[in-house]
């Protein structure tokens, strides 16, 4: 690895060295290359909106004074005049520098400006002969000298539409250098604004229903609430192992016992699993629990919540637009329009649907060897290491889940797949559980929560046996949670929704790394 790659200042290539030379020239000219601040009066879009249309043909009167700041994205010098474009969060605005206007000394400093530099400009607005609103620079300040060129692309107008060719098309590199990706791709910035709007809308929806937002421990002495391999760490002072939470569930239900009857949390969970298009070891989950509710009511809650989330994303990205900015920039992914939610969503029965897909009367009557054989035929990997519940889950993914496109509830899962759900009324071999699927992936998981502490102990002990047998995704017995349940836990409905996957579905994003600002990746 060169010293350049390590961040050193030797062995620089020509371009990087040229920028450092310009930095030195700025310092020699008495210009501070890295400012402390700038009193911006307007964003670009607001400044442009200040300028009224000309009252008569050929009229080019000056408009109000503005102070704008942002990154240089275009630069065209012509002797004693220079045109540039400055980009800020609202868009672009043209700048006009004239030697006679700003003075010879300040104009000479412009020779040391580059694309990507962050500058502040003060001056009046005016319209050019072509009608473009422009800032006539009276003063320019260097705010941050860019010592590395950003990978800006090129733009061209095709049939009246501006088409931008990305200079930063490598998806993996864009995920590693999200700062550069955001800097050169306005549509990616807009995509993540849409994600923020989605989460804000969901938070508003929960608050309107009188749910209380809470925070539960990320470091836990015993992991639980999900079938997942945990991350393990060690607390030095207490000399004890701790686990990064894989789910918020058991702590949120402790709060239900304590009398906080509607609670939710939007936070990060961690699962020590592989990385693929829909899995990242660190991800954002919404979990919410409501006393005296069951899974039927929670299905209604989920439908309403998704409609609200969809509306928030649509307001940012625009109804009917191609789905995702991240993939539009690379030419990858799904270009479908934003999906249209129309509750109620259809429902499928887990047992009936999987049995029919596999061509058997009742999949639950197959022994473990038969399930393993069927899983191998379905293309499931490492079948010999999978427990019976995991085999059933993998078969469902292969035969049913992967084929569901529009939002659909799958209901009434077998008891052995749902250690925290109540038995189904009228059929104790099943549970009152639903999962929401769309585009072949799980979006939500929910139960009529188990509130019988004796039954819960039996299920924890069954999980502990699976763990002892080598299932590193099974949990153990949480005695503290059982103690909480023994105080009396009211009937409760609970839901978990993966925010990353939901956002992927709402925007047509094909890879989870494009829905997360800083995804987990191998070191370079």
Report on this model:
By secondary structure, the chain is α+β, with helices and mostly antiparallel strands. 33% of the residues lie in helices and 24% in strands. The protein has helices spanning 3-6, 14-28, 44-50, 99-102, 104-109, 171-176, 178-184, 186-208, 249-257, 295-317, 325-330, 350-358, 368-377, 388-399, 453-468, 479-486, 499-507, and strands spanning 65-78, 81-88, 91-98, 118-127, 133-136, 139-144, 154-158, 161-165, 212-213, 219-220, 231-235, 240-244, 262-270, 282-291, 347-349, 408-411, 423-424, 427-431, 433-438, 441-448, 492-498. Strands 9-13-14-21-20-19-16-15 form an eight-stranded mixed beta sheet, with helices on both faces. A hairpin with a 2-residue loop joins strand 2 (81-88) and strand 3. The radius of gyration is 29 Å and the shape is elongated. 38% of the residues are buried.
Bin the strand percentage.
15-25%
> What's the CATH C level of the largest domain?
Alpha Beta
Amino-to-carboxy terminus distance: 11 Å
> Helix content range of the residues, please?
25-40%
User: So what's the oligomer here?
Assistant: single chain
Strand order of the largest sheet: 9-13-14-21-20-19-16-15
Largest sheet: 8 strands, mixed
Low-confidence sequence ranges: 1-9, 320-336
Number of helices: 17
């Amino acid at each position: 690895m060169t010293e350049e790659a390590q961040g050193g200042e030797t062995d620089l290539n020509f371009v990087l060295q040229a920028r450092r030379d310009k930095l030195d020239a700025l310092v020699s000219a008495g210009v501070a290359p890295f400012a402390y601040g700038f009193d911006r009066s307007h964003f670009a879009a607001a400044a442009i909106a200040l300028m009224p249309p000309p009252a008569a043909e050929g009229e080019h009167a000056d408009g109000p004074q503005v102070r704008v700041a942002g990154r240089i994205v275009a630069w065209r010098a012509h002797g004693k005049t220079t045109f540039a474009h400055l980009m800020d969060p609202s868009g672009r605005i043209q700048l006009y520098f004239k030697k006679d206007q700003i003075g010879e000394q300040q104009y000479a400093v412009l020779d040391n400006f580059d694309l990507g530099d962050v500058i502040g400009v003060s001056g009046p607005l005016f319209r050019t002969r072509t009608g473009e609103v422009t800032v006539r620079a009276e003063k320019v300040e260097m705010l941050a000298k860019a010592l590395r060129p950003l990978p800006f692309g090129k733009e061209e107008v095709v049939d009246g539409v501006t088409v931008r060719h990305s200079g930063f098309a490598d998806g993996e590199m864009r995920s590693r250098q999200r700062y550069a990706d955001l800097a050169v791709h306005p549509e990616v910035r807009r995509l993540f604004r849409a994600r923020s709007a989605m989460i804000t809308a969901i938070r508003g929806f929960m608050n309107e229903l009188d749910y209380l937002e809470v925070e539960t421990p990320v470091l836990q002495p015993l992991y639980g609430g999900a079938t997942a391999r945990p991350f393990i760490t060690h607390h030095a002072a207490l000399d004890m192992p701790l686990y990064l939470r894989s789910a918020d569930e058991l702590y949120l239900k402790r709060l239900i016992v304590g009398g906080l009857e509607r609670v939710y949390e939007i936070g990060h969970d961690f699962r020590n699993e592989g990385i693929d298009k829909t899995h990242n070891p660190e991800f954002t989950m919404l979990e919410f629990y409501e006393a005296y509710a069951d899974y039927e009511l929670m299905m209604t809650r989920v439908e309403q919540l998704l409609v609200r989330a969809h509306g928030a994303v649509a307001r940012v990205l625009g109804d009917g637009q191609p789905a995702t900015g991240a993939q539009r920039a690379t030419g990858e992914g799904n270009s479908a329009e934003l999906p249209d939610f129309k509750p109620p969503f259809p429902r499928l029965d887990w047992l009936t649907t999987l049995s029919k897909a596999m061509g058997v009367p009742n999949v639950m009557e197959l022994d473990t060897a038969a399930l393993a054989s069927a899983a191998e035929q379905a293309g499931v990997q490492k079948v010999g290491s999978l427990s019976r519940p995991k085999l059933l889950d993998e078969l469902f993914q292969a035969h049913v889940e992967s084929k569901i496109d529009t939002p659909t509830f799958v209901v009434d899962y077998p008891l052995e797949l749902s250690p925290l759900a109540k038995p189904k009324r009228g059929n104790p071999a099943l549970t009152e559980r639903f999962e929401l699927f769309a585009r072949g992936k799980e979006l939500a998981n929910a139960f009529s929560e188990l509130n019988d502490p004796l039954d819960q102990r039996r299920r924890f002990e069954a999980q502990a046996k699976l763990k002892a047998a080598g299932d590193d995704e099974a949990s153990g017995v949480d005695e503290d949670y059982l103690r909480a349940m023994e105080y009396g836990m009211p009937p409760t409905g609970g839901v978990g929704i993966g925010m990353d996957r939901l956002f992927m579905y709402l925007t047509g994003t094909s890879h989870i790394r494009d829905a997360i600002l800083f995804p987990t990746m191998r070191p370079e």
